[in-house]
């Protein structure tokens, strides 16, 4: 599918989304030259309307946006680019140009951190220490946290319940990684059940 640059006077809007967390990071614009450069180099290049020139995100800061997937909308006049960002995306130092109270998809970021701990283990890492104990210990830990979550729900404060639920989800993510599964596997399964 080709992009219809003519429909929008040579510039099309480009939505930048973190491929891991699915968080929308920013909106920019591309002309045909910026689109071509982005495809060739694998780093997002925009057309800067204020500077009237091509601008590769990160050219000064080093906070590049590495292209992982590109999608063109049904009208062929908007691009969605899923990226792996290096550092904050916004010039203010924020992760996203859109202000939110928290990263609503942090659970995907946490999954990425756990995978990184597996791929690059360090002695002080809790994930690494748990991993060394093996599958049985990791599964046992999920069971323990599940029981503690139930107890907190029935007998403790909301703060305790949220803390125990967080422990349960964290340890479940470690167990998923140990078994070679991901949140995406769970999402696909749940979506299939919903139909």
TrEMBL record:
Main subcellular localisation: cytoplasm
Functional pathway: Amino-acid biosynthesis; L-histidine biosynthesis; L-histidine from 5-phospho-alpha-D-ribose 1-diphosphate: step 2/9; Amino-acid biosynthesis; L-histidine biosynthesis; L-histidine from 5-phospho-alpha-D-ribose 1-diphosphate: step 3/9
Documented EC number(s): 3.5.4.19, 3.6.1.31
Keyword ATP-binding set for record: yes
Localization: Cytoplasm
Any GO BP: L-histidine biosynthetic process
GO CC annotation: cytoplasm
Pfam families xref list: PRA-CH, PRA-PH
CDD domains reported for this sequence: NTP-PPase_HisIE_like (cd11534)
Sequence segments annotated as region (Phosphoribosyl-ATP pyrophosphohydrolase): 107-195
Reactions performed catalytically: 1-(5-phospho-beta-D-ribosyl)-5'-AMP + H2O = 1-(5-phospho-beta-D-ribosyl)-5-[(5-phospho-beta-D-ribosylamino)methylideneamino]imidazole-4-carboxamide; 1-(5-phospho-beta-D-ribosyl)-ATP + H2O = 1-(5-phospho-beta-D-ribosyl)-5'-AMP + diphosphate + H(+)
Every Phosphoribosyl-AMP cyclohydrolase domain range: 26-99
Top-rank taxon: Bacteria
Residues covered by region (Phosphoribosyl-AMP cyclohydrolase): 1-106
GO molecular function: ATP binding; phosphoribosyl-AMP cyclohydrolase activity; phosphoribosyl-ATP diphosphatase activity
Keywords: Amino-acid biosynthesis, ATP-binding, Cytoplasm, Histidine biosynthesis, Hydrolase, Multifunctional enzyme, Nucleotide-binding
InterPro entries listed in its UniProt record: His_synth_HisIE, HisE, PRib-ATP_PPHydrolase-like, PRib_AMP_CycHydrolase_dom, PRib_AMP_CycHydrolase_sf
UniProt signal peptide: none
Annotated family: In the N-terminal section; belongs to the PRA-CH family.
Protein name: Histidine biosynthesis bifunctional protein HisIE
Lineage: Bacteria, Pseudomonadati, Bacteroidota, Sphingobacteriia, Sphingobacteriales
């Amino acid at each position: 599918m080709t992009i219809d640059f003519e429909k929008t006077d040579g510039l099309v809007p480009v939505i930048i989304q973190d491929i891991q967390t699915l968080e929308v990071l920013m909106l920019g614009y591309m002309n045909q030259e910026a689109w071509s450069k982005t495809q060739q180099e694998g780093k997002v290049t925009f057309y800067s309307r204020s500077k009237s020139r091509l601008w590769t995100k990160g050219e000064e800061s080093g906070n590049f946006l590495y292209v992982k997937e590109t999608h063109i909308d049904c009208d062929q006049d908007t691009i969605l680019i899923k990226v792996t960002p290096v550092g904050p995306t916004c010039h203010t130092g924020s992760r996203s140009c859109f202000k939110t109270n928290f990263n609503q998809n942090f659970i995907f970021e946490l999954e990425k951190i756990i995978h990184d701990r597996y791929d690059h283990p360090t002695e002080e890492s809790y994930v690494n220490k748990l991993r060394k104990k093996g599958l049985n210990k990791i599964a046992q830990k999920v069971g323990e946290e599940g029981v503690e979550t139930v107890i907190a729900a029935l007998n403790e404060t909301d703060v305790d319940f949220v803390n125990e639920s967080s422990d349960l989800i964290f340890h479940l993510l470690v167990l998923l990684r140990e078994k070679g599964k991901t949140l995406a596997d769970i999402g696909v399964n749940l979506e299939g059940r919903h139909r």
